[in-house]
Amino acid sequence: MSETAVIPHSPTEVWKLPSRGIVAMACLILAESAIFIIFVVAYVFYIGKSVSGPTPREVLELPIFSSICLLSSSLTVHFAVSALHDSKRGMCSLWLGLTVLLGGIFLAATAREWYQLIYHDGLTIKTNLFGTTYYSLVGLHATHVVVGLFMLSLALLFSLRGGLTSNHTERLEVLSLYWHFVDAVWIVVFLVVYVLGR
Amino acid sequence: MATQTPVTAILDKTPASPPRRLLFQVLHDWLTTLDHKKIGLMYIVYALIFLVIGGLEAVLMRIQLAIPNNHFVSPETFNRLFTMHGTTMVFFVGMPILFGFGNYLIPLMIGARDMAFPRLNAFSFWISAFGGTLLYFSYVGGSGLYGAGSAPDVGWFAYAPLTAHVFSPGHSTDYWTLAVLLSGVGTVGTAVNIVATTLCMRCPGMKLSRMPLLVWLYLITSFMVFVTISPLTAAQIMLMLDRYVGSHFFDTQAGGSAVLWMHFFWIFGHPEVYILVLPAFAFANEIIPVFSRKAIFGYPAMAAASVCIGFISLSVWAHHMFTVGMGPGANTFFTLSTMIISVPTGIKIFNWLATLWGGKIQFTTAMLFAIGFLFQFLIAGLTGIMLSVSPFNWQLSASYFVIAHFHYVLVGAILFMIFSAFYYWYPKITGRMLNERLGKWHFWLFLIGFHLTFDFMHIPGLLGMPRRVYTYEADRGWMMWNMIVSSGAIVQTAGTLLFVFNMVRSYFKGAIAGADPWDAWTLEWSTTSPPPEYNFAVTPSVASRRPLWDLKHPEDPDGNYE
Amino acid sequence: MSTHRIGSCLAASIPFDSAHGSTSVFSPAATPAHAIYSLSMLVLSITAAIFLVVAGLLVYVLIRYRSRASDTEEPTQIYGSNQIELSWTVIPILIVVMLFLATARVIFATESAPKPVSAMDVTVIGHQFWWEYRYPGFGVVTANELHIPVSDPQHPTPTYLTMSSADTDHSFWIPRLAGKMDLIPNKINTMWIDPPATGLYLGQCAQYCGTQHAKMLLRVYADSPTDFAAWIKHQQQPAEENAAVAEGRTVFQHNACISCHSVAGTVATGRFGPDLTHVASRDTIASGAIVNTPANVRDFVSDPSHLKPGALMPPMHLNDHDLDAVTAYLMTLK
Ligand code: HEA
Ligand code: HEA
Ligand code: CUA
Ligand SMILES: [Cu+2]
Which end of chain B has fewer CB atoms < 10 Å from its terminal CB, N or C? Predict the structure, then answer.
């Protein structure tokens, strides 16, 4: 058989496949979750195993306000997507801006917490197992927040310059998926570090 | 219901031989390509280069071990050799070669023009390639500024606390960590691509239940990548933090746990071996039916068994840790979960047998390698069962019996199936047939070499020879066996060289293949060999699992039986 | 048991000899190793049976259904059969259940065996490339050669090993006595052995622990009760003071030796290296890698990496005179 056999065939049914972007983001989230699980397992495994102080009970305070900020940014990013979907571009910018702001507050609160811990409580990643697992888990999450904020800021920039249209809804939705994931992870981190670990 | 009317073949109008170009242009083409076929080929060639390097390391080790108290290499060198051999073979041969074939074949098999994310695809390849290069750069840069380079010598699973700064000073271990981490990033990238491609790019009519089994298995493999490579990435990040910023994850002096690393590594490590073997199963699922001239037996069971293997394999990792002192409860649990894997795996073996049953088996080189695979995988699986019996494992673990077990899978099953895949798809990739006469020589030489090496390797293990020893005592009675094992490695080398020769020669002199030399049934054979850049002139659409069978047998299309 | 017969055939066809120096897993000489041996015979026979059936089918199929030159038609296409597939799901499940139950029994019999009061405790500490043994009941510390009493099956006196590591992971493996058990820093593992016959049982470290993992050999001497009692009594003595080697002792004590080695009753109290109080009473040095002769000891002390490259004892740069003196001193530490 030296000739190529091609099988053209007019599709009888509508051939609909899922969106690439969303599938890819779902995969990425799956992979990222696995990374977080390992860090969480390490955290839980080492709770109370530090050979020297300070202990979580002595130095950690519940970050209630910043957590509320981060979690509500999930809502705002959702509204941003809806707004874009309905071609309300001004609203979209507004919601995006709010999201970035809330995320920024969270990040600032984390920075403050770390500053306190390092300079007042003398807890660094080298101090003990608590420091090791705390900074790496919270830091890993914070890194994700930073990445998310960067992308959201880009989106905001495009949106402000009028480059974001309802054609881009899917892309913004993919980004919002990531942001929801970052928020969901925070719930786990919060429970493990500030509730269970204390 | 879905019968279809085949339309006369449409000829592809691309010029047969494009005008010659400058070498530089060709190079530029390849380095910047986003075409899934070219990226796939780069993956494959890159893996082949590393296969030769890793094989060379194995041969050096075998020379050292051929006789007791040998001084061919120093203990330090030997320890580096097995670390580099294991790391290279798993991360820079096994993974890239399988992803290479996946990259090349999946779009062709599902009737797509490219992968879902061509740019991500190129990125994944280059980052993996960079990882491999970095690993070998350690030979010159491993000790940093202090002096001569040195490769890592912590073993491919790099147990803590040997990887801590006190026990592994210098930078060699950092190179290892970084190389593995980067290859992991590339792997996840490719896996994302494969999932997105198979879920979102199938041609009309290609329902999930009509996808070729190869694509199914790659899909499962990719899902496994997400949940297994990521823990490794996490563990490597922790190790890096330990080594660079002084954290204490695996620092036993500060209360850290060596066992935690073992868990993290094997949570990755065990599913990893199935990640390596599933694509080999995937090749078998395509090649065995074609050369038996029969449809695969029990398509749904084959797909379901693979899914089962994927899930169960996530719960068996601690069978690598039976001697760590986990206690009778955990040992019992992991014995059971490990043994259960033999059920879905058995289904696969039996379904392949049933596919052969009643067929008209053609002993092409590709088929010979596939039969070798069946036979050897059976034995490897059974030695795996012996190892899973935890009390027996207390004797066999970390001995040459384990080495024999896993080379039986990694070489006897996976490498054999990779060779088979080369003989099967080389015509599609290059447009020329591999020489069958040389191929048969290659097969028999490699088969003999393989069995000389790895059959006899079980015995020193049973006689108490531990792995990772650079030499051994003369009075233990291990010498004869090691001698045979080493001589087998030489025969394997000869076989491999023949294979390389065949590939090169056939590229220039091989018989012209044509689009469909094996009279096969999946979509990749419906386009020219090699396929044009856009794969299909017209997007195909399918009505069954074997579209070309339907085309060739319009009176009895497959769709009737699915 | 018929499985035993298959086992002995297997063992006979390949020389898994039980002669002196053997480390074969098929010549068990203590209860844990015996239990594993019997289980392994069961497993080997079941897997052999599976192999024969499946490989037999494969060979049959290949011969029976090979294509012939006369073939022109495609064979009948068969797509699957639920019944058949069910059968080859259920049968393996049954085999697995059986194998699993047999295994679980041995796991618990070995790992959860009640410890008799007559048991003797030894603490084993793995070091990079040598073994430290402590007998807490007797106040004895020694290195590299483990002495235990034989255990009469009527009145068992098993030895319980409590194991940990001072640096990296190691593994204690004497194939004829028991399966291996890892020594892991920050973790305490236990295992027990009870050889009924006197003799020397060999093995070696089975977990990669660094450069000289290959020469971290194990020697277990099972002594008769009287021999063992005598040995313990001797080990409890402080080091012999011999005026003839006073010079060697001075060299030893004025060099870094004492910061790494202990010699009971002297200023040497280091714990980084093997205890040398009775080093001359051992058959080997450097963890079984070197025969204990004056010449070898001298060679080893002058530059350990010469005989055991990668050993963590640095070359001591002693001159010939001091070397001779120190060697003479060490040889008196009976
Ligand atoms: C691709 C590679 C691959 C594959 C597929 C397997 C498959 C299996 N492996 Fe293997 N294994 C490795 C690669 C692989 N392994 C590697 C690399 C290591 C060592 C890593 C290192 O330490 O460096 C290792 C080590 C390893 C160990 C740890 C040894 C030790 O270090 O102490 C164990 C223990 O349980 C084990 C068991 C098994 C089992 C039970 C299977 C099963 O999946 C096999 C199932 C198949 C069959 C059983 C045959 C077919 C079935 C039938 C015909 C049905 C009837 C059969 C029955 C009912 C029994 N393997
Ligand atoms: C895919 C995986 C893979 C493959 C294919 C192989 C292939 C081989 N392996 Fe490997 N091996 C591992 C994976 C693999 N191995 C792993 C994971 C380990 C564990 C490492 C660790 O403990 O950390 C290991 C460990 C290991 C050991 C144990 C070392 C030790 O514990 O001390 C030995 C010893 O014999 C060995 C031998 C061999 C041999 C003889 C081959 C042969 O099949 C190789 C045959 C040769 C070739 C295929 C290439 C031949 C070509 C040439 C030599 C080219 C010559 C070139 C020119 C002239 C230009 N391997
Ligand atoms: Cu100690 Cu290997
Ligand atoms: Cu495994």
Answer: N
